[in-house]
Amino acid sequence: MGKRWTIGEINEFVEKNSESKLLSTEYRGFSQKLLFTCSCGNHFEKTFTKFKNKNQRKCDVCQPPRPSR
Ligand SMILES: [Zn+2]
């Protein structure tokens, strides 16, 4: 199984791997949506799984969701 992330580690990951900023101060599990600020200033919510594994690291305006198949 995957590693257990702490909010601090997630914050570090977000800083290193995206232009977005993490606003959430608590992480309760992979299904929880975290709040981010995009580099454009928009706020958006995303689970860390999507952020990290599916490369969804910006808001829906900067990175429109692709239709899934
Ligand atoms: Zn944006």
Written description of the protein model:
The model has no long low-confidence stretch (mean pLDDT 93). It is globular and about 30 Å long. The chain has 69 residues and is an alpha+beta fold. It contains two helices and three strands; from the N terminus they run αβββα. The longest helix is centred in the first third of the chain and has 11 residues. It binds zinc ion. The site of zinc ion has 7 residues, from loops. It comes from Oceanobacillus longus.
Name the helicity range. 10-25%
Strand order of the largest sheet: 1-2-3
Report the order of strands and helices.
HEEEH
Number of domains: 1
Structural class: alpha+beta
Low-confidence stretches: none
Q: What ligand molecules are bound, each kind once?
A: zinc ion
Number of strands: 3
List the total number of helices. 2
Largest sheet: 3 strands, antiparallel
Beta-sheet strand percentage?
Answer: 15-25%
Gross geometry: globular
Overall pLDDT confidence: 93
Q: Give the radius of gyration.
A: 12 Å
For the record, give the distance between the C-alpha atoms at the N and C termini, rounded to a whole number.
Answer: 26 Å
Protein name: AraC family transcriptional regulator
Please describe the topology of this protein.
Layout: H1 7-17, E1 21-22, E2 33-37, E3 43-47, H2 48-53
Antiparallel strand pairs: 1-2, 2-3
Attribute tags:
69 residues, three-stranded antiparallel beta sheet, 2 helices, globular, binds zinc ion, AraC family transcriptional regulator
In short:
The protein is built from two helices and three strands.
